[in-house]
Sequence to fold (123 residues):
Amino acid sequence: MGGSDFGIGRTPFDDPIVYLNNSPVFLARQIEAPVMLVHSDMDASSMSQFDEMYGALLRAGKDARYVRYWGEGHGPQSPANIHDLWTRFDAFLAETGVAPTAEERARLADNAPSTPPTAAVRP
Fold:
């Protein structure tokens, strides 16, 4: 995409400051949410871009995780990698407080009613 304006309207060569100001790498300090980067070696996007973003997040002191899959395209296709991704994603959500931990889910399941509630029917 060399020379492309990426929808900004100017190329990086015409207005490098616009690109600098819009670069996720240079905006890493402003990111507040935990980030989980997932990439595969056969994806069309360069792995070096993910490496660079992960490094920027760590340098900015942010909570970031980076998972790499080898021999995969844009998303994992092998059952083992799909399982691994969901396991890591679930753990990431639990560790960052977005989703309940496995222990919390088990406790909630133990306290759940044995039969689902029925809807009230009005005459």
Observations:
- The radius of gyration is 21 Å.
- Residues 31-104 form one domain.
- The chain is about 40% helix and 10% strand.
- The longest strand covers residues 35-40.
